[in-house]
Fold this protein.
Amino acid sequence: MRKPYIAANWKMTKTIEETEEFIRSFIPLVKDINDVDILIAPPFTALSAASSLLKDTNIKLGAQNMYFEENGAYTGEISPRMLLSAGCSTVIIGHSERRQYFQETDEIVNKKIKLARANNLEVILCIGESLEEREANKTFEVLENQLAGSLKDLSLDEITIAYEPIWAIGTGKTASKEQANEAHTCVREWLRKNKDGADDVRIQYGGSVKPDNVVELMSQPEVDGALVGGASLEAESFSKIVAGAVKK
Ligand code: 13P
């Protein structure tokens, strides 16, 4: 069975002090939950402080992005070695906000994943359709194209897929459990057809996940976890999501 995996994507929120305050209150709330993998992805500036506090806990640290070159003259960018030295085990790649506001294409996402894996970082790859694409019945086609482009020449080792329908992100509109499971099934089938080890890959759902809808989403056979934005910003709310992710 795939172990449930709940990740917090804090996006551009929280200073170092706010990150430390969150982590201090969050650790005791989840310390006895061993059957869920837990990850927090604060902004770059708070990674190192977060890493010190998370040492010897059951909570992993992730970054929200990285660049696709090892080092050099790329002002403002962050390399995988920098993430490792800041204490990250994981990096989120291809979030729809990166694709939408920073023109990240599947080709760029593919380069980033290759470099992350070459540096032994685990990856959460985000994919998902827009509202127009869903309404035009193109959801599966969009997901398959994103998978093909992003995972070109890559194995599935240490890769988690986050299915995040763009219309459900930060809108309060969650995909129904059936919509989530149907999209995850499409992802799983594409992985089975094209890669080895598809049944071990965890597929997280993201988009307005909250304490009161996580149990229902997690009841679906193909939903292995969640990537949480807004509801991960408060320790109590995020701890309830983690607790609700234990598969019954
Ligand atoms: P919300 O949970 O705020 O909808 O954000 C989802 C998301 O984008 C996580 O990466």
Notes: The mean pLDDT is 97.
